Amino acid sequence: MHWSLFIFFNHDNGRTQIIDLFNQDKYLNAIQTSAPHLLRYLATAFIVNKRRRPQFKDFIKVIQQEQNSYKDPITEFLACVYVNYDFDGAQKKMRECEEVILNDPFLGKRVEESNFSTVPLRDEFLENARLFIFETYCRIHQRIDMG
User: Per the record, what is one GO cellular component (predicted)?
Assistant: First the structure.
């Protein structure tokens, strides 16, 4: 499973494929018992994947189960938004997630363009994370004060 991260985060369709593979019961059980740190990559794939998948709700249950035994800013972000509905906490976790992505060898792949380098996954992650917060906030509140 670890070696597959090289492929999944460097392939055009890899983020969808990692969800399909790691979300199978046998893989998810192995991740939960032997390699909970891989939840970071599955969580990231769910966040940056444009199409929400039916498996996402089941994955949130896994995050909730593992909340006490495994701590990671990316999984904690999802717990803040979808389990605890702690939107201030989610904002704080987003900043931590940015650091994690920049320093992670699989997620922080830099792309050189002209005179500068960028981390495309970071931008995509932050954009979708903000959207997750906004959508969930709007879903649970009847009235939103924009002032």
Answer: eukaryotic translation initiation factor 3 complex
